[in-house]
């Protein structure tokens, strides 16, 4: 099979492209700051989203495995759309918190489900060995979507000077994605049942969790490694927004425009470049894995590289090297998007097909628990000590955790 020409693999890619047309994403922290929220309040809003996701993470994975993965994805888009509507109308912390709850429900029904669909498709077509290549390719579509989203979001803010509108514009691609999911082959729903048996539902989840805790040591360690790394990434990645807001005054660009308009253009372009380069990295992640022969070696190396990148970003803040900070954020994104397909290959090689959505949901749930705990602490550190100290504290924490998170070859065990 030629994966570049396969129509269903292309659909998987366009699903990701449409899903990542979240025009608000490069401006979310700036939007919250414009409402007068502190970094601690922003961190707590992230926790609200992640707590919601955490509560529903495994149940939604079990639902997907037992009652249909396509249905699960379509449910997620309904909740996303309602959250966007509420973001558009909200101005106070409580209503924004409710919007985060709706978004978190959408995230729970989505996480792990589409990956399980992709892996089932590869199994059915006898190309399971191409997991890293296919996932990296579909992930590259997602990142192209993020690049397009950053440019369009920047234009909306530049023209209208209104952060709220970008939430409203984000509804359209999600309606299109809802329709696209319905065109997937029915067998990608997995083995489903039409009877909603609560006992079977709970026992299915408990069996998977028991197996993870008592038998699958490599999977357990991989899930913890993935959760900590991606948790820090998801918390830190959008700090480019307040960092650039601090640095923008020193840039001799678009001086004839108001600060908000300058910020919208520079953020939009910065994120577009970050996502396009990350897209290329994700598409070629399988080549990195092949060079190292074992996924574990490349995963350990990218972990260490990320620690140094985060520390250097902290060093550069308030130093006047704005362009260098943007370059470092680009490298930060590139390393993560090289790493993610390799991590999924490492994890998927241990999981049985019938439990993939559930186990991937457990992986996502651990990441969620980590974000819930870490996001307010990181935000409070930024409020108390500044952004520079916050980045240094994260890099130090990752160094301390490194010995506990080091992965070994599955073959060695």
UniProtKB/TrEMBL annotation:
PANTHER family: PERMEASE, MAJOR FACILITATOR SUPERFAMILY-RELATED, TRANSPORT PROTEIN-RELATED. InterPro entries: MFS, MFS_DHA3_Transporter, MFS_dom, MFS_trans_sf. Keywords: Membrane, Transmembrane, Transmembrane helix, Transport. Gene3D superfamilies: MFS general substrate transporter like domains. The keyword Protein biosynthesis does not apply. GO terms for molecular function: transmembrane transporter activity. SUPFAM superfamilies: MFS general substrate transporter. Residues 1-413 form the Major facilitator superfamily (MFS) profile domain. Coiled coil: none annotated. It comes from Halanaerobium congolense. This is MFS transporter. GO terms for cellular component: plasma membrane. It is a multi-pass membrane protein. The chain crosses the membrane at residues 21-40, 77-105, 140-159, 165-184, 263-281, 301-334, 364-382. It is found in: Cell membrane.
């Amino acid at each position: 099979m030629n994966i570049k020409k396969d129509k269903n693999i292309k659909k998987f890619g366009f699903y990701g492209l449409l899903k990542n047309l979240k025009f608000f994403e490069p401006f979310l922290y700036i939007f919250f700051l414009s409402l007068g929220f502190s970094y601690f309040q922003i961190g707590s809003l992230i926790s609200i989203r992640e707590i919601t996701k955490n509560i529903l993470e495994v149940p939604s994975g079990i639902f997907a495995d037992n009652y249909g993965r396509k249905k699960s994805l379509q449910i997620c888009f309904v909740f996303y759309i309602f959250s966007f509507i509420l973001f558009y109308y909200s101005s106070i912390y409580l209503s924004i918190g409710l919007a985060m709850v709706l978004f978190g429900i959408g995230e729970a029904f989505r996480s792990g489900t589409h990956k399980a669909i992709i892996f089932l498709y590869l199994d059915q077509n006898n190309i399971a060995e191409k997991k890293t290549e296919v996932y990296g390719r579909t992930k590259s579509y997602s990142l192209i979507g993020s690049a397009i989203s950053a440019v369009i979001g920047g234009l909306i803010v530049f023209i209208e000077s209104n952060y709220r509108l970008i939430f409203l514009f984000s509804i359209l691609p999600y309606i299109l994605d809802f329709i696209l999911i319905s065109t997937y082959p029915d067998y990608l729903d997995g083995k489903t049942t039409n009877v909603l048996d609560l006992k079977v539902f709970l026992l299915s989840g408990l069996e998977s969790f028991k197996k993870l805790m008592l038998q699958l040591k490599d999977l357990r360690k991989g899930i913890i490694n993935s959760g900590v790394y991606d948790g820090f990434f998801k918390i830190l990645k959008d700090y480019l927004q307040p960092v650039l807001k601090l640095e923008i005054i020193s840039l001799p660009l678009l001086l004839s425009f108001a600060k908000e308009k300058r910020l919208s253009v520079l953020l939009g372009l910065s994120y577009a470049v970050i996502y396009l380069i990350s897209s290329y990295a994700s598409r070629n992640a399988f080549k990195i894995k092949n060079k190292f022969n074992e996924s574990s070696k490349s995963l350990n190396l990218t972990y260490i590289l990320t620690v140094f990148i985060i520390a250097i970003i902290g060093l550069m803040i308030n130093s006047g090297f704005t362009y260098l900070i943007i370059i470092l954020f680009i490298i930060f994104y590139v390393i993560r998007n090289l790493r993610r397909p390799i991590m999924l290959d490492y994890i998927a090689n241990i999981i049985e097909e019938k439990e993939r959505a559930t186990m991937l949901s457990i992986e996502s749930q651990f990441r969620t628990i980590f974000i819930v705990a870490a996001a307010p602490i990181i935000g409070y550190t930024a409020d108390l000590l500044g952004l520079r100290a916050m980045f240094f504290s994260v890099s130090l924490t990752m160094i301390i955790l490194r010995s506990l998170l080091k992965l070994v070859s599955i073959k060695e065990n």
